[in-house]
């Protein structure tokens, strides 16, 4: 019996794009000689986005296990790219903060990302690319508002 599945639906497209962009970025980061692994690069970028953030929150936002993030942070801290400090609101929790030394690595990661985005955009004009990003931001905001409403523990999975 055939199952009615649309392989071009929004959910599949977003998942495929995520998988492809992550793989392409991982290879590009590894090939760029920046001195960090792809996982460490993702950690730096997420930490830059979040600002001073609890380690457990950073792991959740990245979609990785706490132990995986801890390994990344150990190596980044050894290179003085991040520091972990006690959270003044909860001494058991650690805050992750970037150091000034992370700026150069983040710039290198950004250059790699720009090249990957250029390849991903292909023949799309800058206007078309910007419009797509604007529309995706609307979708993200719509889904974020659904997950914050009382009684909506999960967003519908059929999107």
Describe it for me?
The chain is mainly α and 159 residues long. It has one domain: Arc Repressor Mutant, subunit A. The protein has helices spanning 10-32, 38-50, 55-62, 66-78, 102-121, 126-147, and strands spanning 53-54, 82-87, 90-98. α2 (38-50) crosses α4 (66-78) and α3 crosses α4 (66-78). The chain starts with 9 loop residues before the first helix and ends in a 12-residue tail after the last helix.
Brief digest:
The chain has a single domain (10-122), classed as Winged helix-like DNA-binding domain superfamily/Winged helix DNA-binding domain (Arc Repressor Mutant, subunit A).
Features:
Arc Repressor Mutant, subunit A, 11% strand, disordered C terminus, 6 helices, single chain, 159 residues, three-stranded antiparallel sheet, mainly alpha, globular
Layout of secondary structure:
Elements lengths: L9 H23 L5 H13 L2 E2 H8 L3 H13 L3 E6 L2 E9 L3 H20 L4 H22 L12
Antiparallel strand pairs: 1-3, 2-3
Helix pairs in contact: 1-5, 2-4, 3-4
């Amino acid at each position: 019996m055939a199952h009615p599945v649309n392989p071009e639906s929004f959910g599949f497209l977003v998942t495929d794009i995520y998988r492809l962009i992550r793989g392409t970025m991982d290879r590009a980061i590894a090939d760029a000689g920046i001195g960090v692994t792809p996982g460490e690069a993702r950690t730096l970028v997420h930490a830059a986005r979040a600002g001073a953030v609890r380690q457990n929150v950073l792991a959740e936002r990245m979609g990785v296990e706490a132990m995986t993030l801890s390994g990344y942070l150990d190596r980044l801290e050894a290179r003085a790219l991040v520091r972990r400090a006690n959270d003044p609101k909860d001494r058991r929790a650690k805050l992750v903060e970037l150091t000034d030394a992370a700026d150069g690595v983040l710039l290198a990661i950004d250059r790699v990302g720009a090249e990957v985005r250029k390849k991903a955009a292909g023949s799309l004009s800058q206007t078309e690319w910007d419009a797509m990003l604007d529309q995706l931001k609307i979708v993200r905001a719509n889904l974020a508002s659904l997950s914050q409403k009382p009684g909506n523990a999960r967003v519908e999975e059929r999107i």
